[in-house]
Amino acid sequence: MRSVDVARTALGNTFRSKLRTALTVVAIVIGAFTLTLTSGLGAGVNKYVDNVVAGFGDSSQLFVLNAGASDAEPTEGPAEYDPEAATDSGGMFGPGTGGGLLTESDIETIEDIDHVSGVDPVVMVSPDYLETADGAQYDLTLDSPANAVGLELEAGEAPGDDGMDLSIPTEWLTIFDTEDAEAVIGETVQIGISDVTGEQTSVEAEIVGVTEEALSGIGATPMPSRELNQELSDLSMEGYEGQAEQAYSMAVVDVDDLAANEDSVKSALTDEGLLGMTVEDQIGAVQGVIDAVSWVLSGFGLIALLAASFGIVNTLLMSVQERTREIGLMKALGMSSGKVFGLFSMEAVVIGILGSVIGVVLGLGAGLIGNGWLTGEGGPLGGVAGLTLFAVDPVSLLGITALIIGIAFLAGTLPAARAAKKDPIEALRYE
Amino acid sequence: MSIPVLETENLVKVYGKGATRFDALKGLTFEIHEGESVAIVGKSGSGKSTLMHLLALLDEPTAGVVALEGEPVNKLKPKKISQLRNDTFGFVFQQFFLNPNQTVLENITLPLKIAGMGKSERNRRGMEVLEQLDMADKAKNKATNLSGGQKQRACIARALVNKPTVLFADEPTGNLDTVTSEIVEDILFGLHRDYGITLVVVTHDEDLAAKCQRRLMMQDGEIVTEEHSVKEVQA
Ligand SMILES: Nc1ncnc2c1ncn2[C@@H]1O[C@H](COP(=O)(O)OP(=O)(O)OP(=O)(O)O)[C@@H](O)[C@H]1O
Ligand SMILES: [Mg+2]
To answer: Which end of chain B has fewer CB atoms < 10 Å from its terminal CB, N or C?
Structure first.
């Protein structure tokens, strides 16, 4: 018997008892549907995370923190008080001498490490307000100038190292009563900040750029130039009595050929009590969790498939029993046992193909529609820029289809073997 | 004399073991030559079907040998035996065994499909045989919608479609009325006469048996007498 005839006959036989086939297929559809949804969900969320990472731009960078800052092991219940540690983790406004912040000498140490081509210390400032020419004041949070590489510009240019420059997001155009991004370039604003004693002062800054919010979130808040950032930091430290040493919350370190030198730089940092992390390090953990969750969900899909495979076994066993005479006749007319086996396992495969294709298509439909509804404009998650909850990954869809067809084939082997073993004489005598 | 198409030597078939042991065939030795028509006759339970199944390589003897064209078959692989059955034999079974969901044409071309022949060639050969049996107009009918005589003719068509050397028929007229029986008999002996097909017919119908050149009379698993027709049978 030719393969094409085996396939055609199997297909015909599958549709002989339509209701029974349909019910078996439904069980597989449920499994395929679940797997498609869960794998699409994992792929979608991971894709979103990847896009966020890409938004950070340069991946030749290491983010360096003082190891003390992330040393705080989570403890069961309240942690015991440790005077050493307490002084170590000086707050944001303290003239950090150790612990959570990086000092000038730390920066120098980092600069001396092999393969480090540049160190960009990050100073965090907390200004109070931004004041426009007409005197209106707005609540202000500033982004770090270290993120300038990740800016997506609508107009003008990114704030650089020098000059008292500032970029604002497109949403802030309203404070100048305009929709034209170009129009605000060159406008000046006042930025107010309080010093240690609580006294407010302000500095003038010029708007040089208008930014769009990138997936990473960069560009959603105004960003100062380095000089402006430093000036604001200095103003905030005014009135501090004592040895005020410049402190940084972290440093962005450029590394030559990060892929090759990552480990050596990291270990050099560790020796100095510092912690270096790549973007992947920070995001990798998140993706690990997402993968784990989607695997657990896929587990439910697999359980559904397992149940469905017993459906296939049952359906085909009934079919073999019903068609005893037909099998006997085929064997009597010279069909080999191998071909009989092939015919029945092919029927299982047909059921598997039907179930997986329908399930995958339904899963794709549900995933895409659900994603559109949830993350689309006006949807419950519509506010999260660039969020995808479901992505089409052809490789895993093919994988799911192949897996299900494989399971169907395995489920078919028992009935098929039984059919192949039938003795033509017994089968022909069978009433 | 030429090599017989089928020959047996001391053929024994035992069913069951111990207390339920039943000797269905007790050592049969005979030959069937090409172009012969042979009737296996005997009472119910005498072992006719058992013998036919052994001759047709559908079953294996407990002891003894079946040889096809001088070659003992007991040493052959199952797959080879299946292929031999497909190539050389045609079967008309006691029951019709037609697939009710398929058309007459699909039913009768099953042996060719099993042989691995392409669909168009299959259908061409199928139509040829149906025309030969005056059934061409029923080719596209579902097998269920045929009368008993038409079903039996369809079965004969299925047996002939692969141009067999030997045609086995187990009670081919068992289910049919006298008139239809005669039509079927005419077809079988016509084939025998016109195409030289070797005919092995199991029957307890005296009429049918009388038309065969040789009659093997069976009783309790043994051939008790063997009769030869004096003159050539005319259909
Ligand atoms: N599988 C089996 N197990 C046990 N006994 C069997 C088996 N098959 C056949 N027999 C016995 O072998 C004997 C011969 O059976 P067989 O079918 O050859 O008879 P038959 O001559 O064809 O009879 P009928 O004319 O009724 O068809 C019978 O007594 C039957 O009961
Ligand atoms: Mg019988």
So the answer is: N
